[in-house]
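re: ur question from yesterday

yeah so i grabbed the chain u mentioned. its 186 aa long if i counted rite. heres the sequnce exactly as i have it in my notes:
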Amino acid sequence: MSTAVRLRDRLRSDERGFTLIELVTVLGMLVIVMTALSYALIAASKAEEEMNRRFASQINARIALDQLRREIHCASAVTPTGASATITIVLGNRCPTAGAGTTVSWCTTGSGTRFALYRLVGGTCDATGKKAVDYLTTGTVFSFAPQSVTTLAVLSVTLPVNTRPASGLPGYRLTDDIVLRNSSRT
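ran it thru and got these structure tokens back, copy pasting raw so excuse formatting
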């Protein structure tokens, strides 16, 4: 009998299929592999979400600081003096964001380790204004030094951004000292 005939007879007679133990074993291995893949995909999705939140917060802080810098450069007055969570700016002539004499307020609201920076046209500021930055870790972000005989008025701004301060990951700190160009030396 030839080899081809023997192989054909053997394949025809061996139609048993898989046993239940083999199927359960394969299903168990499939569950283990799929669980590991699911955990990896979920962790990657959460990491991407956190990265996007951190990136958006950092960009918003830069944009807010840029807008604040433009307004401070054309401001004629800033109150209060010293460290504060709120400042009120009286805009001078030729200010691109609003007309001369317009009052703009910037403030932080929040509690614990999560604060937000708001901008509102008017003498008082609260959370009804336009949110400029979120995830600040402190509420006192402004420090104003009035003009003196030798220096112009300076507003120091520190924006510490951290989307998860409890995690121990380092935050992002954006700082700037902005000079009021329209302040006068006394």
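noticed a couple things. Residues 34-179 form one domain. also The helical segments are 3-13, 20-73.
anyway ttyl
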